Amino acid sequence: MTDASFDTSANNNTHPGEAQFGDYFALLKPRVMSLVVFTALVGLIAAPVSVHPFIAFCAVLFIAVGGGASGALNMWWDADIDAVMKRTTSRPIPSGKVEPREAMALGLALSGFAVIMLGLASNWIAAGLLAFTIFFYAVIYTMWLKRWTPQNIVIGGAAGAFPPMIGWAVATGGVSVESVLMFMLIFMWTPPHFWALALFMKSDYKEAGVPMLTVTHGRKVTRAHILVYTILLAPLAIGTGLTSIGGPIYMTTAVVLNAMFLWGAVKIWRRPEEAAEADKYRVEKSFFGLSLLYLFLHFGAILAEAALRPYGLGGW
User: Where does the secretion signal sit in this chain (predicted)?
Assistant: First the structure.
């Protein structure tokens, strides 16, 4: 831990036997895990090589466990920050339900289990990608980038972008243009998604000492960054529709969603801070909600194209 005083208070407030199964499960960040499962599954199904349903199930399960393991390690290291931020004070460690060392042990154990089992169930390329993903999120992002640079979300976004690439590797045993594009779609989506959140959660990050862009450069600069990344994201998302994982369903979805996302980014960029404060960041919160729908529908469209392809309906 990085804050000794917090460690002491956590240990004083934690009593053996109090933690329930739900508390340990919460360490795995189930909401994030659901995104990991969905995008990994899409990557696996969209791949040109079919996988036995049981192997596919096991592979996605182990990828999910690996994602949960990195979440537990993140909560262990960031317990001091979580204790300060309003939206994270109820997490298992700052609330005193789970001891930091228990979270660390759980994260390490599940990491090893997930990587080994994925390698045995599918192939070691996929397992290696999963191992690197866990390392990237737990060490490079959580322990280094998050507290060091306002570009933490930009670089750290790679950790959340690997699952579809891992799913693709489960099926094919390698990496391709399509899997890289799915990776890039999440990677480029992450900054505007999180910066929109940071616009109306600035005080939390400032109090916790996290150098989010809103804290280090102000909200006006953050608004401009959201617009720039959204502009860069649009051609990438639409261009993905021209590859083997695309098709009319995906292309229609991408064009409509990116037009909406671009318009939302322009509105955020043009907003004076006084207007945002007056309506309690209504536009920013709406953009954040749209960003969640944006990613789900893009990958949902890829999934639909793959599901319809055997019937001659999906793809170009």
Answer: none
Q: Has residue 13 been placed in a domain? A: no
Name the residue among 35, 38, 45 with its Cα closest to residue 160.
35
Q: What is the mean pLDDT of residues 152-159?
A: 86
Query: What secondary structure letter does DSSP report for 142?
Result: I
> Same structural domain for residues 76 and 184?
no
Q: Which two tokens stand for residue 219?
A: 């909200």
Decide if 182 contacts 246 (C-beta within 8 A).
no
User: Judging by beta carbons within 10 Å of its beta carbon (0-12, 13-18, 19+), is residue 175 exposed, middle or buried?
Assistant: middle
Write out the residue range of the structural domain in which residue 136 sits.
20-175
pLDDT class for 18, splitting at 50, 70, 90? low
CA–CA gap between residue 167 and residue 170 (Å, rounded): 5
Closest CA to 104 of 136, 132, 78: 78
What are the Cα distances from residue 303, in Å, to 213, 297, 298? Answer: 34, 9, 9
Return d(Cα 148, Cα 164) in angstroms, integer.
28
> Which tens digit of pLDDT belongs to each residue from 276-298?
999 999 999 999 999 999 999 99
**Displacement of CA 305 from its chain's centroid (Å):** 23
Q: Is residue 11 part of a domain?
A: no
Rounded Cα–Cα distance for residues 145 and 148 (Å): 5
Q: Take residue 164 and report the two structure tokens written for it.
A: 């579809």
Handedness of CA 271, 273, 274, 276 (dihedral sign): positive
What does DSSP assign to residue 147? Answer: G
Q: How far apart are CA 105 and CA 127, in angstroms?
A: 20
